[in-house]
Amino acid sequence: MTKHFDTLIVNIGQLLTMEGDGPAKGERMKTLPVLEHAAVGIKDGKIAFIGKNEETKNFHADRMINASGKLVSPGLVDPHTHLVFGGSREHELVLKQQGVSYLEILKRGGGILSTVQATRKASEEELFEKAKFHLDRMLSYGVTTVEAKSGYGLDEDTELKQLRVIKRLQNEHPVDLVSTFLGAHAIPPEYKNNPDDFLVRMLNLLDIIQKEELAEFVDIFCETDVFTIEQSRMFLQAAEAKGFNVKIHADEIDSLGGTELAVELGAVSGDHLVGASAAGIERLAGSDTIAVLLPGTSFYLGKEKYARARDMIEAGVAVALATDFNPGSSPTENLQLMMSFAALKLKMTPEEIWHAVTVNAAYAINRGEEAGRIALGRKADIVIWDATNYAYIPYHYGVNHVKTVLKKGKVVVERGRNDAT
Ligand SMILES: O=C(O)CC1=NCN=C1
Ligand SMILES: [Zn+2]
User: DSSP string spanning 232-296?
Assistant: First the structure.
């Protein structure tokens, strides 16, 4: 029986389909089905065949890609980024080296607030070009679906400007984007004494955000000197009442109980969770809320303490990983580096890590039914790696292991080895 495909990827050494239903938890997160000596057929941008290489003898394709025994996986998913922003904050590095904390820099009017100034000044076009540059780099790292937040405006015009940039990227860039409104990212100086009034002002944006379909999620930075548990609960409940899904920056630096709040609100994800309590982890385990861990932020802030990934996984929590790409606490687009940090600092196994950057990351942004897996009929978002086995990627850190990226069946990244001159 001959079959004709647009593209046939043959001689795959290890194929990770991430098969299964729903997010991977417990034992399923610890085991990784691998199809050896495999092949994948693509037709009209979708997966049309998954099987053993020897089955493809009578197959034909407009384009044959020889994977030469390499590793093939679904496109990676980055479920937590602050992709759209103006300026940069390298000048803060010396303050960090002098021991000035993240929250102290924020208190002094720096940190997020300094990026707010740069973002307010930048035009929509400038923000678009800059975000596109970063998104191109994420794609080169094998990331084919990205969540992107606003949060550097803290005023109507600039929050909408950021969200419109995300929407334009969704329409013009190969990477699939999921948009989050994070107007409650910090308290602007003019609202220092009445943050509740600021939150009401940000809530008043939800109608136009909904009307222009500018965001699916609403998020808030629940943290000391930012927004309290009570403020976060009020804000996110108001967003849910309008039909938005919610996520929350929780227990990143101080343990306020944001993890428990995420579960209480039915948040799609609770993010950071470095200070999650044992009770919080237990609540997570009994919920559908995904734990999005951001080891790059703990690393960059020079923290000794990392999220308790092992306790979460053992308790049955679905764990995902993300870069938290942003100019202040995690200035890197490299999700592969997060895989290495997950191994080295979160003590996650390669099998758990691969679930955390594909299927679980997809569920953390409500894309579990369309991203993070190689399955018949799904979008052909595929990465061919310059490695022969899946454990090699988290092991060999700080470099880009991508050889080829296909987005909806189209080759969008092809990285050759440097030709010796
Ligand atoms: O510092 C930033 O720009 C991003 C951030 N928001 C909450 N934690 C980090
Ligand atoms: Zn963040």
Answer: HHHHHHHHHHTT-EEEEEESSSS--SHHHHHHHTT-SEEEE-TT--HHHHHHHHTSS-EEEE-HH
Q: List residues bridging with 59 in a β-sheet.
A: 3
Pocket residue to mutate for ligand 1, from 80, 324, 325, most atoms within 8 A of Cβ: 324
| 420 pLDDT above the threshold of 90 | no
From the number of C-beta atoms within 10 Å of its C-beta (0-12, 13-18, 19+), residue 121 rates as: exposed
Give the pLDDT confidence of 254-287 residue by residue, as tens digits: 999 999 999 999 999 999 999 999 999 999 999 9
Total residues belonging to the chain: 421
Residues with Cβ within 8 Å of 419's Cβ and at least 6 positions away in sequence, in order, are none
Q: What is the ipTM of this complex?
A: 0.98
**Would you state the structure tokens that stand for residue 1, as one six-digit string?**
């029986």
The rounded Å distance from CA 72 to ligand 2 centre is 29
pLDDT tens-place string over residues 156-197: 999 999 999 999 999 999 999 999 999 999 999 999 999 999
What lies within 8 Å, CB to CB, of 221 at 6+ separation is 151, 182, 184, 185, 186, 227, 249, 252
Amino acid identity of residue 196, one-letter, is: D
Ligand lying nearest the CA atom of residue 111: 1
Nearest to 175 by CA among 125, 211, 204, 133: 133
Backbone angles phi, psi at 327, to 5 degrees: -75, -5
- What is the per-residue pLDDT for 113? 95
Token code pair at residue 110? 């720096």
Nearest-atom index, ligand 1, CA of 249: 7
Angle at CA of residue 181, ends 342 and 131, nearest 5°? 70
Whole-angstrom Cα distance, residue 324 to residue 296? 7
